[in-house]
Amino acid sequence: MSASTAAAVPAAIRRWHEVAEARDIAGLNALLADEAVFQSPVVHTPQVGKAITARYLTAAFQVLNNGHFRYRNEWFGPNSAVLEFETVVDGIEVNGVDIITWDANDRIVNFKVMIRPLKAINMVFEHMRATLTAMSA
């Protein structure tokens, strides 16, 4: 990414990229607002609060953020962004978007994930469930 392109990326998203690339849990906690909400592609209700949002994103770092993970495209609004990603997990191509909203302090207040195709959703669900269960143990 060139310096001029990087300057066009909102601060919250630059920080998100740094945190995600490093799988930096402390940085993730600093980036999330206390009232952060996580919206999963498979859990019906929004997961409300910094702790549960951090938990889901930490599990996603393990499940999705592997050597194949990359953001393909990004679109920015005044306080929101859509980041299209792709990865491969267990030989299955996963395509999705992260829809991120941040507050005036550049802290994430809403993180929504959408994934396709159905085969990928089912596989990611199983891996996320196992990872979250292991994190609880």
How would you explain this protein's 3D organization?
The chain is of the alpha+beta class and about 140 residues long. Helices cover about 40% and strands about 35% of the residues. The protein contains 5 helices and 6 strands; from the N terminus they run αααββαββββα. It has a 6-stranded mixed beta sheet with strand order 2-1-6-5-4-3. α2 (about 10-20) packs antiparallel against α3 and α4 (about 50-65) packs across α5 (about 120-135). The radius of gyration is 14 Å and the shape is globular. The model has no long low-confidence stretch (mean pLDDT about 95).
> What is the first-to-last residue Cα distance?
40 Å
Q: H/E series, N to C? A: HHHEEHEEEEH
Strands ordered across the widest β-sheet:
2-1-6-5-4-3
- Shape field: globular
Share of residues in helices: 40-55%
Count every helix, treating DSSP H or I runs of 4 or more residues as helices: 5
Strand proportion, as a percent range, falls in 25-35%
Uncertain residue segments = none
Secondary-structure-based class equals alpha+beta
Q: Compute the average pLDDT.
A: 93
The number of strands is 6
Nearest-angstrom radius of gyration?
14 Å
Main β-sheet: number of strands, strand sense, barrel status?
A: 6 strands, mixed
